[in-house]
Amino acid sequence: xxxxxxxxxxxxxxxxxxxxVNLRLPAVAPREAFPAVPLTVDARLQTRAVGQRATRPxxxxxxxxxxKYIDDIKLPGMLYARIKRAGISSARIKRIDTSxxxxxxxxxxxxxxxxxxxxxxxxxxxxxxxxxxxxxxxAGDGVAAVAAVTEQIANEALEKIIVEYEALPAVFDPVExxxxxxxxxxxxxxxxxxxxxxxxxxxxxxxxxxxHIFEGRFSTQMIEHVSLEPHAAIADWDATGRxxxxxxxxxxxxxxxxxxRTLKLPMSRIRLIGTTVGGNFGGKNEISQEPALxxxxxxxxxxxxxxxxxxxxxxxxxxxxxxIMDYKSGVTKEGRIVARQIRLVLDGGAYCSWSATTLGKACxxxxxxxxxxxxxxxxxxxYTNKTMTGAMRGFGAPQVCFAYESxxxxxxxxxxxxxxxxxxxNAFDEGSSSPTGQVLHSxxxxxxxxxxxxxxxxxxxx
Amino acid sequence: MKRRGRGIxxxxxxxxxxxDANPSAATVKVNEDGTATVLTGTVETGQGAxxxxxxxxxxxxxxxxxxxxxxxxxxDVTPMDTGAIASRTTYVTxxxxxxxxxxxxxxLFEAAxxxxxxxxxxxxxxxxxxxxxxxPQRAVTIGEVAFRSQVVLGQPAIGSATWNPPTVAMDxxxxxxxxxxxxxxxxxxxxxxxxxxxGEVEVLRICAxxxxxxxxxxxxxxxxxxxxxxxxxxxxxxxxxxxxxNGRIVNPxxxxxxxxxxxxxxxxxxxxxxxxxxTGPFGAKxxxxxxxxxxxxxxxxxxxxxxxxxxxxxxxxAEKVLAAIKAKKGAPKQIPG
Lengths: 462, 337
Prior knowledge:
The structure holds two protein chains of two kinds. Chain A is of the alpha+beta class. Among the domains of chain A are: 3-48 and 56-63, no CATH class; 175-223 and 318-456, 2-Layer Sandwich (Aldehyde Oxidoreductase, domain 4), CATH 3.30.365. Helix content of chain A is 27%, strand content 22%. In chain A, a hairpin with a 5-residue loop joins strand 13 and strand 14. Chain A is globular, with a radius of gyration of 27 Å. By secondary structure, chain B is an alpha+beta fold. Chain B has six helices and eleven strands. Chain B has helices at residues 49-61, 89-116, 142-152, 218-238, 295-307, 318-329, and strands spanning 2-15, 24-30, 36-40, 68-72, 123-126, 129-132, 135-141, 158-163, 182-195, 201-211, 267-273. In chain B, strands 1-9-10-11 form a four-stranded mixed sheet. Chain B is elongated, with a radius of gyration of 26 Å.
């Protein structure tokens, strides 16, 4: 037995002993116990870098649990912020009394919506307040933010803030919200805040020329991103008047612009540092609590950290759009799609956020990767008094894919065709024209169909 | 009794923003020892983007992935970037970094040409050396050239560039236009078992064939596909935010909001379909979001294949599947009496 093996066995024994006495194991295992010997030539060292299965430079830190997220960062004198949530879906704020919270020992500052220089933001429409000032548009809206020396004191301070509401009519169903007599979420504007049309050929003519017509209605649910790391940020407004924000955010250029706008600060006085993001999936594409943290830092002269609870991730951050999708397709008896008409209604939640982009992608992609000469897609996104919907991995595409592929199987079944064959018959080719008239290049739909079918062992049943 | 079914989900997905400008800028600095530093305003969000961006810079400079350090995510230090969104990082930021690396390389070629007695246009960067095309024995290391360029000639090899996808605005009446520069394609086929007595669905395996143009890093592509499928399984079968009559979420916690764990994951087979897009960096497009797109469709079609019921409202929970199976069988026979 050589020395190294002996060391290894001894350390493994140590671990066993530690387990026996029920002690918490150290986060970092003894180095020798798990020798990280690469099994292959290190792909990171190869020239011709493209195509290499190179490991990530951050993977060792992740693997050892040593990556530092916002929650691991502590600046000297740092305070902890919490946000009071409305808990009512549609209301006028009659009065906010923060004096009880401010009088608490350990509470250093409170901020309300009226104090935010420009209390609105959003990538398309600036319809979202940092903290609700006069109106609450959904139950997860923040109404006040507190900074205290500990998170516990900040939490207790929220209880001492008194808010009087006058409840207003609310609407939660997107189809109801489209009606003229529905309560207006952002009065006096219509609840339909964006729409899009894609029209190619003539669907009515196409339906007339078809041998069969298939119709279906599909709908999807509201989904949260559930990143392991919640929304988190630290604001540090220093004595030179310069603001540094550490934030778990995927888009620092836009976030700095939003900060400059909401705080009325020159961009050059804001530094935005994007820390290691513990999961994004579209949920961390814009600012949320950061302007409130910045003002708390300005008031106290100390850095202020804010971390959403898991509950706030659901109630007060963006989510995936529920979509109601109506499909009608005209097909020949061979299974070729002649015409397709689609209507999409997106539940847009209380604020626009990334809904305009989601609407666009859902609308353009909704006919599917198929050659169809006659297409009409109409898509609408509608305000409701629910948590806001925004960017999430796929921007409306997973929803419409569920619809157009379910619809495709219904057509295959109706015609007695194999599901694979009907897709190969209709799929785009190199140079096919998309529903928006774009000539497509580098098209490999059929290759993916054939490859997946070969791997699966798909056998035709038609 | 458990019934087996199979279903296809096929999709297309665009890379980058819909029409709107979404530029990226980048700076590539070749250090005096032949390693390089890349400055980018994008942020690593766990997908491995910085590794891929480093590989693109390394490939352009003829050096290894490990020779490149990528600095990101600080508005004081890094150039603007539209960010880690819309599956655009490899394609848009990658193109900016490729162009910046080419600009830095041009400075190196200027310095190397007199050292090797040829014109800059005759040179190529390969295996950490700058060499004469088709005559590789005449070469000098990139480190030597970078040092000479900076310290002797006073011209450090630093390149900066920007890139924005070429699009055409859509007509507001007809929607006709070129909203995106390019698209990727994918097919996933799911195999499921559906228990027709409980409605419970188990996803057994998913075969995923994805196009991403050139796979800059096949391992990271596979990682994206596996992660995307886990989100697709949740969308298909479990995840749903529920509201009470007053618009308040009733399940804002991981106790009541059910999502897939490792125990719910199927066996996954990933195939990367060979593709090459001349408009992307080294032929690459992207892969992030599309991996989550066809999964739910494939699973729902497999449920239909297994038990003959079409669930039209996601998620296909056991309760919903069982109710559909019962409805299909018809109401239980009345006992005469």
